[in-house]
Each structure stands twice: as structure tokens, then as C-alpha cells.
Amino acid sequence: MKKERERIDELDISSKLTKIKYVNNVSPYYYFQLTDPDENIIEVTGQYSPAERI
């Protein structure tokens, strides 16, 4: 997930790119969000090690 976030950041396709966030409802859930040109919020999730946090 860290590599994908970095790749999107380097493409400079969204001015609204969040850091990797953590939610623990039922099980740990890591994600980041970006906004596309039409202002749709896109959430990207996947495997992520907390040791990699940015």
C-alpha cells in the first residue's frame, strides 16, 4: 500500500491525497484516499504493516 500511495503521489493526479489511515472496528483496516478530477473520493485499501507507517 505504501508503494501505491507513493506512486499516486508522484503522478500528481490529486491535490487531495491523504496519509495512510488506520481503523480498528472488527479487524485492523488500513487505507488512503484521493479525490479524482470530478471530486469523487477514491479509497484504496490492502495489506499494510504498521511498521511501514508514513
Summarize this, please?
The chain is built from one helix and three strands, in the order H-E-E-E.
Can you tell me about this structure?
The protein has 54 residues and is of the alpha+beta class. It is 19% helix and 31% strand. It is globular and about 35 Å long.
Secondary-structure map with pairings?
Layout: H1 2-11, E1 21-24, E2 28-35, E3 41-45
Antiparallel strand pairs: 1-2, 2-3
Uncertain ranges: none
Number of helices: 1
From the N-terminal CA to the C-terminal CA, the straight-line distance is 11 Å
Mean pLDDT: 88
Main sheet properties? 3 strands, antiparallel
Into which percentage range does the β-strand content fall?
25-35%
Q: Quick one: overall form? A: globular
Biggest sheet strand order reads 1-2-3
Report the order of strands and helices. HEEE
Q: How many strand units? A: 3
Helix/strand class: alpha+beta
Question: What proportion of the residues is helical, as a percent range?
Answer: 10-25%
Radius of gyration: 11 Å
Features:
globular, three-stranded antiparallel β-sheet, 54 residues, 31% strand, 19% helix, alpha+beta
